[in-house]
Records
---
Amino acid sequence: MTRTGFVVANLFRKKTRTILTVLSVIMAFLLFGLLQSLSHIFDAGADFVGATRLMTQARVSFTQPLPLSMVPKLEAVPGVARVAYSQWFGGVWQSNTQVFTFAVDPLRYHDVYPEWVMPEQQWQTFAGTRTAMVAGKQLADKYGWKIGQKIPLSSSIYPQKNGSKSWAFDLVGIYDGKDENWKKQTNVVFINHDYFDEANLFGKGRTNFYILKLAEGSNAEAISKTIDATFENSPDETKTQTEKDFNLSFLKQIGDIGLIVRWILFAVFFTLLLVVGNTMAQSVRERVPELAVLKTLGFSDGSVLSFVLAEALSLCLAGGLIGLVFATLLGAMVEKATGGQFQLRVDTFVWSIGIATILVMSVAVGLLPALRAQRLKIVDALAGR
Amino acid sequence: MSESMVEIRSVTKVYERGKQKVEVLHELTLDIPTGDFVALMGPSGSGKTTLLNLIGGLDQPSAGEISVGGSRIDQLSSGQLARWRAHNIGFVFQFYNLMPVLSAEGNVELPLLLTKLSSAQRQKNVAAALEVVGLADRAKHKPRELSGGQEQRVAIARALVSDPRLLVCDEPTGDLDRNTADEILGLLQVLNREHGKTIVMVTHDPKAAEFARRTLHLEKGKLLEQAA
Ligand SMILES: Nc1ncnc2c1ncn2[C@@H]1O[C@H](COP(=O)(O)OP(=O)(O)OP(=O)(O)O)[C@@H](O)[C@H]1O
Ligand SMILES: [Mg+2]
């Protein structure tokens, strides 16, 4: 037996209690790992490396549409190869199923997104038919839509000129993704922007955002700055960012994710401190005589303190490391399942703050019981005073 | 007899309970020669445990001097006392006070974690101590798998394992039946006679005291004069 062995043996004095405590630490650190990597994504600065497309939206919010007159100005920016645009339609299928529907210029969109695969003939029909729509394969399969069908979709935002929010489109094509990743995202409907623009009751000649395909080898960051500078101080100031950052800003609409994450973690760890702290306090309280015997045998006050601290550390370390491992695995699974769209990387950074948290927590829950054990007077403890 | 193992000079022990002061030992003087086996008797509350704790270096006197094995221990800091106890004293308690999470051999090995002995050397000493108390075959058992008498033997092995010259025992048979008590007392006698351990034992039981070489009576913090 060693001192370590003794510490471990003491942890298993009350097996159920130890296991439950460790489980709660595991859960907390699982959550910690996942949420931390999530907020890490949101807090990270813009990353233009490897970007082949940029998204331009109104600086305030993409809910404020930009004029189509920007197209030639955007096309004039060096490094921009092709410009597409997309307008949120707010599609609703049947009574209340939301369908992601965007009004686009078909051929421009086709050029900018070669990842969407559909027979060229269908792209042409899409472009040539005012009331056309194309649907992603997943969606078409899900609702049993067939090419040639008329699909009624209502809009949660835009009424037609006659005031009715019910629209109907001719399904002229079903697109798929070029690989596994893109196939997973074929749940969007596209309609013809020309038709939408004409037929809707509200604004004309506007779109929510532009998608810019960049020329090979161009500097995405510089282009983004040039564009935003071009429209600065105009009535339509822009914000140009990578697709990845754009997707994040979509989520950011929900609220300040970083702040939410911090509050959740605060609540979780506050609870955890109470749970583990209580376990430690109880375990010291119930073996006051044993701790006194240790001192009788010649263990110093400091050794007894370190035994208790080591127990707290073992509890937190066991639970914390297992929790972080689970978070790492689960994060990788989420990333894989979403085809890399949602990157939950429990990376070295998350691990380091995780381990720092484990250490701080061990001291926080262990220190008071350890000090109590250290201060224990042998004669009183032995006599049960 | 030979030199003194324990020398107590005018020791007074006062406990403060709130504002009230309780004098538990009053100017007590006592010599215990090396190789002695002393039974300490007296009514409840007379200060027996207090005296034993002072001899064992678990507590400090309010006044007076205490030497054990030639060292003054009444002036030591609590850290120095802890180190001193580890090498010089073996303790045996009424309720055995074993670690429930450790096996018999784990309990006996515990004091050796304070030494520089190698793991192999520790195992050897543990085996030897368990052999002396006749429990070699129960080494792997946890305390709750042992009888009271066996638990007390493990406790005695734990007190012996670092080879101290002095054993202090506070009512070591107080929780045992007559036969078991006699076995434990016989064991202490062997330790005294054959292994040369000096023993101070508190007991309420006159039969137990008969196993000792002599009996001291404590009353209200003072020793009664005793014919040798
Ligand atoms: N730490 C303490 N604080 C206050 N009073 C104490 C303390 N320790 C002992 N006493 C008091 O000192 C007196 C002697 O106690 P001690 O434990 O030495 O008696 P004892 O002779 O061992 O008795 P028993 O036979 O019941 O074990 C008792 O009145 C006890 O209440
Ligand atoms: Mg007593």
---
Amino acid sequence: MPVEELSDGIFRINVDDREMLATKNLMSGISVYGERLIVEEDVEYRQWDPNRSKLGAMVLKNFEIPLHYDSAVLYLGAASGTTVSHVSDILRDGLVYAVEFSPRTMRDLLQLCDQRPNIIPILADANKPQSYAHIVEKVDVIFQDVAQPNQAEIAAINSKYFLEQHGHLMLSIKSRSIDTVASPKRIFKEEVQKLETGFDVEFEVLQRKELDPFHEDHLGLVARMFVDDEE
Amino acid sequence: MQESGQGAALQDLDLRQAAIDSCFVELDEEYDILLREVCIRAAKSRISSNDTDDRRIIQAVQALDDIDRNSNELSERLLEWYGAYFPELELTGEPLARFVSTFGSRANVPESHPIFVKASMSMGSELSFADEELLRTFALNLCSLYDTRRHIESYIVKAMGSLAPNLSDIAGALLGARLISMAGSLQKLASFPSSTVQVIGAHRALFKHLRGNTPPPKHGIIFNNVVIKNAPWWQRGKLARSFASKISLAARTDFYTGKRDPSIRENMDKKLNAIRTANPSPPKRESKPTGKPGSRGKSRNKKGGRR
Ligand SMILES: C[S@@+](CC[C@H](N)C(=O)[O-])C[C@H]1O[C@@H](n2cnc3c(N)ncnc32)[C@H](O)[C@@H]1O
């Protein structure tokens, strides 16, 4: 079978005997960052390069991806939108709030938003969720790829503000942005511990795996927010 | 997604509910579309406000440097190239470029021109028509670089007049712009202590000093100002310190009030004159630093010896 749907909106396609990851192009005919467009049985797909996307790498590392056609997603660290464009493809009936704090990068992201009706751009610092709390509503998934030393904390406060009760947190942790010399394994362990017990929201880590060979010294992680049922 | 709209907003204000209650929008979908448009517009306007006056000035300062680098290189080429045809012509830089673009071959210099005799007696070789055309175009391009440079300079002067009138007053628009460029922004320049302002642009001398083998630099690019450049050497350090502190004050006034305050300039002129009259002649003993018994001289000697 040349096309297989691995998870909602995420496909594995066989082209010329090569397997590739792809999403169904929401804006047909338009390639976002130079990726290949493939037509298979009258449907256009965009190739998804796992080397350029932590989320793409997580798919290939067999993570269970909690994204669905109608999910609402808060994406922290959207950059120029390489991965956001694929999330936008996946969420054909949902929407993604794309938070990025570098104005120069936001300029590129805005071009993407102009084309795609399900992306809401937010120029803001993910450390300050209160600055976009009037815009963002409850979301099903928070995806975070900010490469900051306090990434666990950023994930926790944003979850507290915006994550649905049993919502999922997807995190890419880059060890070198936390400590350039310490061993990545140790850093990952500490970050996971922080998420599990370090904040006033707690997470149950469902899956964690390093993202090599696509991204060296990166840990991918999917967690579910714990909620006190007494509340 | 619809469901997500019903989740209680954490902020005091539930915008979606408010918009629907006030009949600003009727449907959830309308709110979604509106929200997206507003967010795009808000991000765009914040990005363009990020393209501030000081960024534009910094670009212009860097463009000046680019032009200088290029025009120096091109004018050296022209000198060497044209020199074969008219070695007696003692022009360089812009005058040379103007000359070549106007006349091309020295045979075209009219009798009325002061250079005529030299031109007709030259031992240079003859210019073929093709070479003449080429050299003329080359020179013409160089001239237009010089024109652009002047254009940029006047742009900077104008832009600085509105962004940083006091800094322009004190340091001159071009030096002021260069200080902003090296600091990164007017805000950063305004936040520097004046001792830093004094040595902006003196990286090499500063690092050398920090490594311990030289005295601290007395002045960075502010040395380019005539106040310091033309002063006798024994006044320069004092003038530079005072000049730097006024530059700091001017930058802060520009950043925080944006209004021109002539008293900064007046005070500076008074201060500088006082320094000049208090130090009319070179200090005699300090003119031979090694002979001076002061602790500084000694320790410097020691270090020098160890190395
Ligand atoms: C590694 S890149 C993200 C790449 C992107 N996820 C992709 O795959 O296309 C990290 C991005 O996060 C942004 N970032 C870092 N800290 C941030 C913060 N505190 N708030 C918002 N964005 C941040 C950076 O500007 C950068 O664009």
